[in-house]
């Protein structure tokens, strides 16, 4: 089946409803004009007055629903009703029109008195059963429009619901029948593309995790075992012992880093424990001072504790320390309070390169794992503000 736009589908139904409404309204307007509900009664009265004054008719003239003549020609019931409403022969008004009820009928009267003693009366009488109530007509019109609107709305609603269900089915099963609306079809394609991209990203993460857990950790373990065996050799020169110690420490750092990256890839499996951040920052300060980074800690007197994963927190602080050492200069100022942490130092003026932003992405990923929110400000002064959850 050929696809159609939802806009065109709704426009056709609205046009159909508008056409039905227009036809009903034309019929109502014709009834209003026929029964003089729109104020045309005076026009008909004056039209008959001109005919009466022209002498084309012999007065008094009486027809079905119409009478033209003088006071003495009026029927008795007309005279009583007109006199009671101030339309008698002695009134001084030259021209006067009025709508009166006579029994169950309606009477439109034009009293014209060119010569006051001889007023001319033009009377139009409409039977009550021939003049339905305007309120009833409009109530019927409203009900009719409501019924037609419901008849149009319900199939439209059902069609859109079916297409929505078809869209949901197409998201769950790409082999299902496509939707008939172009808008839904485009959304289905976008959703399928997004689902494929998410699935591909998850596969890449699993592949990367498998690579870290096996292809990288296994050689590192072999290197550490080999270094341990070297340390047990008696013929090993004494000058080589510091180098072996340095290699062992580098190997341990690599193992810790790979485990932290692996844990970061599986952030949903990380178990958080409440940890005193004061002690962690003090240990971090001491380890990086040995590498030449001057860190100034502004810690509160009371300990600040947050639920964290120790290896991921170490990874975050390591990335910040590397960033400060490679791209900054001066003292690295760290402030801790119950609301968060702030890291700040001057941006280096002699940088060989600006990096690829990998450290920033790792920091953002760790903060997301802990439920923290980070904000960066970098001009001449680099500032990272980490907000703890309230």
Task: Please describe what this structure looks like.
With 390 residues, this protein is α+β, with helices and mostly antiparallel strands. The protein folds into four domains: 61 residues; 96 residues, no CATH class; 85 residues; 118 residues, Heat Shock Protein 90, CATH 3.30.565. 54% of the residues lie in helices and 19% in strands. The strands form three sheets. It has a five-stranded antiparallel sheet, sandwiched between helices. β3 and β4 form a beta hairpin. α6 packs across α8 and α8 packs antiparallel against α9. The protein is rod-shaped and about 150 Å long.
Major β-sheet strand ordering? 1-2-5-4-3
In this structure, how is the largest beta sheet organized?
5 strands, antiparallel
CATH superfamily of the largest domain: Histidine kinase-like ATPase, C-terminal domain
Number of domains: 4
Tally of individual helices: 9
| H-E string | HHEEHEEEHHHEHEEHEEHEE
Based on Cα principal axes, name the global outline. rod-shaped
In terms of structural class, how would the helical and strand content be classed? alpha+beta
> What's the average pLDDT?
76
N- to C-terminal distance: 55 Å
Which range does the strand content fall in?
15-25%
Residues in helices, as a percent range: 40-55%
Highest CATH level, the class of the largest domain? Alpha Beta
As a whole number of angstroms, the C-alpha radius of gyration is 48 Å
Give unreliable regions as ranges: none
CATH architecture of the largest domain: 2-Layer Sandwich
């Amino acid at each position: 089946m050929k696809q159609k736009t939802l806009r065109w589908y709704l426009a056709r139904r609205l046009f159909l409803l508008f056409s039905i409404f227009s036809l009903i309204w034309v019929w109502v307007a014709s009834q209003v004009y026929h029964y003089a509900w729109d104020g045309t009664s005076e026009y008909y009265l004056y039209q008959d007055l001109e005919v009466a004054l022209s002498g084309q008719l012999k007065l008094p003239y009486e027809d079905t629903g119409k009478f033209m003549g003088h006071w003495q020609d009026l029927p008795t019931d007309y005279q009583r009703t007109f006199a009671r409403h101030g339309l008698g022969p002695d009134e001084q008004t030259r021209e006067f029109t009025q709508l009166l009820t006579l029994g169950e009928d309606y009477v439109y009267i034009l009293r014209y008195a060119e010569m006051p003693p001889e007023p001319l009366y033009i009377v139009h009488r409409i039977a009550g059963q021939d003049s339905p109530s305007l309120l009833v007509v409009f109530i019927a019109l409203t009900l009719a429009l409501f019924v037609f609107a419901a008849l149009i709305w319900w199939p439209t609603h059902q069609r859109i619901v079916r297409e929505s269900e078809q869209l949901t089915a197409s998201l769950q099963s790409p082999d299902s029948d496509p939707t008939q609306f172009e808008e839904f079809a485009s959304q289905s394609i976008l959703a399928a593309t997004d689902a494929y991209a998410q699935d591909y990203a998850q596969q890449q993460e699993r592949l990367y995790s498998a690579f870290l857990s096996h292809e990288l950790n296994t050689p590192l373990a072999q290197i550490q075992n080999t270094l341990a065996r070297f340390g047990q050799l008696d013929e090993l020169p004494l000058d080589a012992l510091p180098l072996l110690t340095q290699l062992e420490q580098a190997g341990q750092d690599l193992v810790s880093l790979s485990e932290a990256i692996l844990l970061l890839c599986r952030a949903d499996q990380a178990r958080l424990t409440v940890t005193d951040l004061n002690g962690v920052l003090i240990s971090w300060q001491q380890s990086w001072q040995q590498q030449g980074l001057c860190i100034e800690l502004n810690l509160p007197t009371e300990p600040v504790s947050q639920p964290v994963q120790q290896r991921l927190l170490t990874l975050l602080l390591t990335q910040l320390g590397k960033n400060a050492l490679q791209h900054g200069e001066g003292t690295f100022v760290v402030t801790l309070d119950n609301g968060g942490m702030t890291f700040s130092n001057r941006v280096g003026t002699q940088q060989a390169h600006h990096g690829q932003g990998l450290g920033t992405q790792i920091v953002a990923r760790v903060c997301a794992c802990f439920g923290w929110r980070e904000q960066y400000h970098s001009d001449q002064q680099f500032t990272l503000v980490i907000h703890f959850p309230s």
